[in-house]
Amino acid sequence: MSQTQTVAVPPVDTAAPRGRGLRGNPALTLLAVALGVMMVGIDGTIVAVANPAIQSHLHASLAGIQWVSNAYLLALAVSLITAGKLGDRFGHKKVFLTGVAGFAASSAAIGLSGSITLVIVFRALQGVFGAMLQPTALALLRKNFSAEKLNAAIGIWGAVIGASTAVGPIVGGLLVQHIGWEACFYVNIPVGLIALAMSLAALRETDPSPAARSFDIPGIATLSGALFLLIFGLIKGPDYGWTSAPTLAFLGAAALAGLLFTLRESRTRQPLLPLKLFRSASLSAGVVLVILLMFAMFGAMFFMTFYLENVHSLDPISAGVHLLPMTAMLIIGSPIAGALISKLGPRIPLVAGMLLAAVAMLGLSRLGATSSPNDTIAWFVLLGLGLSPVMVGATNVIVGNAPVELAGVAGGLQSTAMQLGGALGTAVLGAVMSAKIATALPASWHAAHLPALSTAQLAGVKSAVSVGAAPITGSTPPQIATQIARVSHAAFTAGMHDAFLVAAAVALAGAVVALITKRGNGTAAAHAGI
């Protein structure tokens, strides 16, 4: 995301430069960056398991515990493109090492925190350091792998993200149960030390890019403001109400900041994000595909955890095990997808992947309250197989079609698209779920001849049902409790049905977008005159 200055952009080297011994070795470079991003992947899911224990131990309010996740998400999303720019300017190895060390240190600080305020502060700091890892990791892969081998490297990189995301809930559940919530953060320390040692030994520094020799401070400020306001508005929209004044103010301010950013970037000689980069139809399509991918995957999986834990009463570890078929297919499918994309180009695998994902979403939409948790397995396998070529292909289309001098900014763009897509998916599909529950629940509650509810009581019941919970207390008579559970779970699965149908439509739209992609060679930006 930077520059309107004219820069001579060479194509990707057909034979990536290799250093002697350990330093610059492509395989060791891949291992080093994989260890770094593994911390981010594990942390993204392990904290959800730790949150209840954090809330209990530190006596946090609901708002406080929500900010444990929100502070990290906001800091990460706001910092990604700027972190990529830092790598282009000063060298990606330096920024990556800073991110590894800072992420591990902030994780230790979170574990040592004695108040929810300190946890939130260090979580935000952890998000900033996490933002230094993802775009620089992609840029280092781009630098050290030849064009024909880059897809395979990104495939393995994607498999590591899938694996670390999958083990997060399981490892988190074991650590919370047997040690304590602090261990969920301390686990990053040994991983960080190993990643730091491997990175110092194996990574070769990238040359500072002439295209990133200055910082666009107004651009950074307006982009950061736009992303912060947008993500915050999406996070708080369900609480404030989507048509409420605060939500509309945040989203409107985000649009204004985005407009100011676009005007700034179109006029400055040294922008943060070169807008001409988007003249590459493939790169633009890649960004849209990543947003749609994460919209469908994160938005849908958000509800599947509630379905498994609250409707079927599975514990977090068991729920994580039931999600393994999808992540296992991501792990297996990503390297295979990388090889296929190297041979066929990205278009066919991307279209096929999005179509498979759409079919899987349609299958998941058929789940009901009486369905077995095992009924999800086949659809999760299909979903993982569909998403793996999209994760690899869309990433390659973005990073591969950007000039190598702006690889860090391209990596930041890809990572920002992931965060934005996940936030949009959770918000939009959550709104679909809430709308369905708002219409279905009162009618079914009345039809079941359950006690009448006041307006305030109905709002509380809707809130519980929106996460798959049945509003039952210990004093509720068993017969009425059974009826409430039946009605609540039926309303939740009805909302989940609509949410999955929307996710399927989004995946189908992604298949159409994928038709305009082509293999990345680093020259598209040059043709755009950047």
Please, could you describe this protein's structure?
By secondary structure, the protein is an all-alpha fold. Helices cover 76% and strands 0% of the residues. It has 17 helices and no strands. The longest helix has 41 residues, at 407-447.
User: Are there runs of 5+ residues with pLDDT below 50, and where?
Assistant: 1-19, 522-530
Tell me what portion of residues adopts beta-strand conformation.
under 5%
What is the helix tally? 17
CA-based gyration radius: 23 Å
Spatial separation of the terminal alpha carbons: 12 Å
Helix content range = over 70%
List the helices and strands and how they pair.
Blueprint: H1 26-58, H2 62-90, H3 92-112, H4 116-144, H5 147-178, H6 183-186, H7 188-202, H8 217-240, H9 245-267, H10 281-311, H11 316-344, H12 347-364, H13 377-400, H14 407-447, H15 455-465, H16 478-514, H17 524-527
Helix pairs in contact: 1-2, 1-4, 1-5, 1-7, 2-3, 2-4, 2-8, 2-14, 3-4, 3-7, 4-14, 5-11, 5-13, 8-9, 8-14, 10-13, 10-14, 10-16, 11-13, 12-13, 12-16, 13-14, 14-16
What is shown here, in short?
The termini are close together. The longest helix is centred in the last third of the chain and has 41 residues, at 407-447. The protein contains 17 helices and no strands.
List the main descriptive attributes of the protein structure presented here.
mainly alpha; disordered N terminus; disordered C terminus
